[in-house]
Amino acid sequence: MKEIFAILIAMGAFYHVEDPARGGVTMINFTGTCNTEHFQGKVLDGGVDTQRHFSPEHTLLSARYMMEGVDGAGKPCKVFVQNEGNNPTQGRITRPIYITDSEYLQQFQNDSIFGKMDFTEEGLYIRVYAMPKE
Questions:
Q1: Contact by Cβ (8 Å): 51, 25
Q2: Confidence (pLDDT) at 87
Q3: Could you say which of 24, 49, 52, 129 is the most buried, measured as most Cβ atoms within 10 Å of its Cβ?
Q4: Alpha-carbon torsion 6, 78, 83, 25, what sign?
C-alpha cells in the first residue's frame, strides 16, 4: 500500500441549509497542502466538501478539488480529486478517484484506491492510498 496524497486541510467558509422533510446540507470551502514522495503541492481555491445529513447516523460526503504541484518525478502537474464517503464518524473511509496530467501519478490509477480522514494535532488530513490489484 502506498500513500499517494496526504492533504492537510485548511477550512474556509461554510454554508448550511436544513429541510425538515429532506435533511440538511453543509458545504465547506477549503484549501490545503500536500507533501508526500509522490506529490508536493497545494489545493487550489474552489475546493468544496458537501455533506448531506439525513440523520445523525447517516451522512453522505462528496468533496471535489484540484491540486497543483510537482509529482514524484519532479514534473509540474495538476490533479483533480473527487472523494465520496458515507457516515464519516464510522470509520472515515472514502472512495476517491483522481484525474491528472502527470504520467508519474497515472501509474497508480489501476490500483485499488481508497481514502481515510485523519484528525491530528496539525488538523484534518485527507489521505489517499493505492493498493495494487492482485
A1: yes
A2: 67
A3: 49
A4: positive
